[in-house]
Write a structure and sequence with these properties.
Layout lengths: L1 E2 L8 H6 L7 E6 L17 H9 L4 E3 L10 E5 L5 E5 L14 E2 L4 E3 L8 E2 H22 L17
Parallel strand pairs: 1-2, 2-5
Antiparallel strand pairs: 3-4, 4-5, 6-7, 7-8
């Protein structure tokens, strides 16, 4: 759930409650700038610490050890819940150096980072080289992931 102030922030606790009796992992993600100069986005950001405060008003929870594939999320479990919640903080807590994600657009372009302008077109690789070519390309993207692409646009100082 991308949490946006004044849009869906009132639903955070309800989404967290989905983990009480289901083995769901609900992830809350800070709203990130949509791009473009002059676009005012900061007023929509609900910082990760505030998301956790909203949940804690209704449910006590504990931080849990991150799984190997957790990516940039900090994970928590509501006491007694079977599922987990996670918070991803691209605005207030950069995680570029620990990110293990690749972004693939709807048009089949792969990026090592959501904010990266460098893309690899996966469609010809799938058509011409199949799985070996695709694997080689994806490993190359991971190997050369940017270390801190998003920080120029979204610094903690620029967050609300």
């Amino acid at each position: 759930m991308v949490v946006m102030r004044g849009v869906n922030d009132h639903e955070v606790v309800d989404f967290a409650a989905l983990t009480l009796d289901r083995r769901y992992t609900v992830r809350f993600i800070e709203f990130m700038p949509p791009g473009g100069e002059g676009v005012e986005w900061r007023s929509h950001v609900v910082p990760g610490r505030e998301i956790l405060e909203l949940v804690s008003k209704r449910y006590p929870f504990d931080e849990i050890r991150r799984g190997e594939l957790a990516g940039p999320a900090q994970d928590y479990r509501i006491r007694g819940a079977v599922g987990t919640i996670g918070v991803i903080t691209p605005v207030t807590g950069h995680f570029c150096d620990g990110c293990n994600r690749i972004r693939v657009t709807a048009s089949g372009m792969a990026r090592g980072c959501l904010f990266s302008r460098e893309e690899t077109d996966l469609k010809p690789l799938l058509r011409e080289e199949g799985a070996p070519g695709l694997e080689k390309a994806l490993l190359g993207i991971v190997r050369f992931k940017p270390e801190n692409t998003g920080s120029a646009k979204t610094t903690p100082e620029s967050a609300p």
